[in-house]
Write a structure and sequence with these properties.
heterodimer, A: alpha/beta, Rossmann fold, six-stranded mixed β-sheet, four-stranded antiparallel β-sheet, 38% helix, B: 259 residues, mainly alpha, 9 helices
C-alpha cells in the first residue's frame, strides 16, 4: 500500500503540497483530479522518489522512501512503472528499443525472449508492426500507448499515469482509458492516475480523490463525486467558472 | 560611492558563482566516478560515444590541424628568415603542435562540436522528462548518460590530439617544402633531433584532462536545463563557454606542472 502522511512541499516559498494525506489501495485504480498547478504531478513524483518532501512521509509497503539509500530506492523503483504526460520515450532509439529498455537494464534475457516480450507488450496496446519506427514518427496517442507498453514490460506492482489522456481527442482518450482498465485487470497492478478528465476518471477509477490547495478535499467512488455537495468539487466536476475556485 | 560598491558586489557575485559552479562540478564528477564503480559501463553506449567524438570529429580536427600547421610554417618562416634559422621551422611547428596547439585546439573544436551536442541532448532529455523516466526505471542517469561520454572523451581526446598534431606537422611540411621551396629532409631531421618523447606524452596527458573537463561540464550543464527550448539553448551556450574557459585555464596549470 502507498501512503502519503502529512507531506509538505514548497518551491521558492510557494507551498505546493500542504499537509497532504492520502492512501492508495492495492490492486485498485485511484484517480487524483484537480486543477493544473495544484501539485498533482508533484505528488506523483514524491511517490517514486523523484522529489523528497520538506516534511512528512511517503510509505511504500511500510518502507519510508526518505529513510532508504539510493540503491534501495532503485530496487524499490523496479516495482513501479510510470507513464509520463508526453510519454517520455527515448527519442534517440526506436520503439522496439524503448520497450526493451527496462528488460535490457534489469533482466538477463536472451535476445529471443526480449523480442517475444516486446512484441507481446506492443500487441497488448494494439501497436504491432511499429517496432522499427522512431518516437517522433508516432502520433501523441501512439506514443502514450508505447509508454504504457514500456511501463508494463516488467509487470510492476504499481503503475503511475501522469495525465494519460491530456492532449488526445475523445476517441483516443477512450482508447487509453480502456487500455488502463484492461491492463489493470490483466496485471492486477495498483494504478494511480492524475488527470483533469472527469469522464475518464468516472470510467477508470475505483476511487477518486480531489487535490485542492495542496491537500485532498474529497475521496470516494464516482457516485460520491457525482453527488458531492462540496462546492469546490461541484465546481470542478461541472467545469463551471463560477464558484469558490478562484481563477 | 554606491556605483563603486555595486561594482565590487558584482565582482563578488561572479567569484561566488564560479566557486559554486566549480564545487557543484566536482561533486557531480565524484558522483559519476562512484557510478563507474557501482555499475559496469555499458560498452555499446561507450563505443557509440567514442565513435561520435572520434570518427565524427576527424574532419574538423584534421582541417584545424592542417591549417594551423600551414600558418605556423609561414609565420615561422618570416621570423626565422631574418635570423637565418629556417632549419628550426620543423621543430618549432612540431613542438607547438604536440605540446600545445594539438591538445588545446582539438579540445576546443571537440567542445564546439560534441560538448554542445552533449549539453543539448541531455538538456532536451531533461525537459522532456526522459531523465525522470530513466530514474523511475531505476537507471542512474549519471551512469547511463554521463559516464560513457566522460570516458569516451578521456580516451578519444588524446587520440584526436595526435591526429591534429600529425596533420598539423604535415601541413607545415607541405608549406615548408612546396610553397617556401626549402629542404624537406632538414624539416624532418630537425624534428627528430629536437622533439623528445616527453613533449608528446605530456601533450597527451593534457588532452586526457581536457577530455574529462569538456565532457564533465557539458553533461553537467545538460542536467541543469529547465524552461523549454530556451533553457536548452542557454545551457548549451554555457557548456561551450565554460568548457573553453576551463580548458584554457587547465592548460596553463598543466603546462606549468608538466613542462
Amino acid at each position: 500500500m502507498i501512503i502519503l502522511e502529512n507531506v509538505n512541499k514548497s518551491f521558492k516559498n510557494v507551498k505546493v503540497l500542504n499537509n497532504l494525506n492520502i492512501s492508495f489501495e492495492d490492486k485498485k485504480i485511484t484517480v487524483v483530479i484537480g486543477r493544473s498547478g495544484e501539485g498533482k504531478s508533484v505528488m506523483l513524483k514524491h511517490i517514486v522518489g523523484l522529489l523528497r518532501p520538506d516534511s512528512g512521509r511517503v510509505l511504500f509497503n511500510d518502507i519510508d522512501l526518505n529513510a532508504i539509500n539510493k540503491k534501495e530506492l532503485n530496487e524499490l523503483r523496479k516495482k513501479f512503472g510510470m507513464v509520463f504526460q508526453d510519454g517520455a520515450l527515448f527519442d534517440s532509439i526506436n520503439i522496439f528499443e524503448n520497450v526493451a529498455f527496462p528488460l535490457r537494464q534489469h533482466l538477463k534475457l536472451s535476445e529471443g525472449d526480449i523480442i517475444k516480450k516486446v512484441m507481446s507488450g506492443l500487441n497488448d496496446v494494439g501497436l504491432s508492426g511499429i517496432e522499427s519506427k522512431m518516437p517522433a514518427e508516432l502520433s501523441g496517442g501512439m506514443r502514450k500507448r508505447v509508454a504504457v507498453a514500456r511501463a508494463m514490460i516488467l509487470e510492476p506492482e504499481t503503475v503511475l499515469f501522469d495525465e494519460p489522456t491530456t492532449g488526445l481527442d475523445p476517441i483516443m482518450s477512450d482508447v487509453i482509458n480502456n487500455l488502463i482498465i484492461s491492463t489493470q485487470k490483466h496485471f492486477k497492478y495498483t494504478g494511480i492516475i492524475i488527470s483533469h478528465d472527469i469522464e475518464g476518471a468516472y470510467k477508470t477509477a475505483d476511487t477518486i480523490a480531489m487535490l485542492y490547495e495542496g491537500a485532498i478535499i474529497e475521496k470516494g467512488d464516482a457516485e460520491k463525486f457525482k453527488t458531492s455537495d462540496n462546492p469546490v468539487v461541484r465546481q470542478f466536476v461541472t467545469g463551471s467558472m463560477n464558484g469558490p475556485i478562484v481563477i | 560611492m554606491d556605483f563603486i560598491l555595486r561594482y565590487f558586489e558584482r565582482i563578488g557575485l561572479f567569484v561566488l558563482y564560479i566557486i559554486n559552479e566549480l564545487g557543484s562540478l566536482i561533486i557531480y564528477l565524484w558522483n559519476c566516478i562512484l557510478s563507474i564503480f557501482r555499475y559496469s559501463v555499458n560498452l555499446n553506449n561507450l563505443f557509440d560515444q567514442m565513435s561520435f567524438i572520434g570518427m565524427g570529429s576527424f574532419y574538423i580536427v584534421g582541417l584545424t590541424g592542417l591549417f594551423t600547421g600551414m600558418v605556423l610554417s609561414l609565420q615561422s618562416y618570416y621570423a626565422a628568415r631574418i635570423v637565418g634559422v629556417t632549419y628550426m621551422i620543423g621543430p618549432t611547428i612540431a613542438l607547438s603542435m604536440t605540446r600545445e596547439l594539438g591538445p588545446v585546439l582539438t579540445a576546443l573544436m571537440i567542445t564546439a562540436r560534441c560538448g554542445s551536442s552533449m549539453a543539448s541532448e541531455i538538456g532536451t532529455m531533461k525537459i522532456s522528462e526522459q531523465v525522470d523516466a530513466l530514474e523511475v526505471m531505476a537507471v542512474d542517469p549519471f551512469y547511463f548518460l554521463s559516464v560513457p561520454r566522460i570516458i569516451a572523451s578521456m580516451i578519444m581526446l588524446p587520440i584526436m590530439s595526435i591526429v591534429t598534431s600529425l596533420i598539423g606537422i604535415f601541413g607545415g611540411y607541405v608549406v615548408y617544402k612546396f610553397f617556401l621551396g626549402l629542404n624537406g629532409t632538414v624539416f624532418v631531421d630537425m624534428i627528430y633531433k629536437y622533439i623528445k618523447l616527453s613533449d608528446i606524452y605530456n601533450g597527451l596527458i593534457k588532452a586526457v584532462f581536457f577530455g574529462i573537463i569538456l565532457a564533465t561540464i557539458s553533461t553537467f550543464k545538460g542536467f541543469e536545463a529547465s524552461g523549454g527550448s530556451k533553457g536548452v539553448g542557454r545551457v548549451t551556450t554555457q557548456a561551450v563557454v565554460l568548457s573553453s574557459i576551463y580548458i584554457l585555464f587547465a592548460d596553463y596549470i598543466l603546462t606549468s606542472i608538466l613542462f
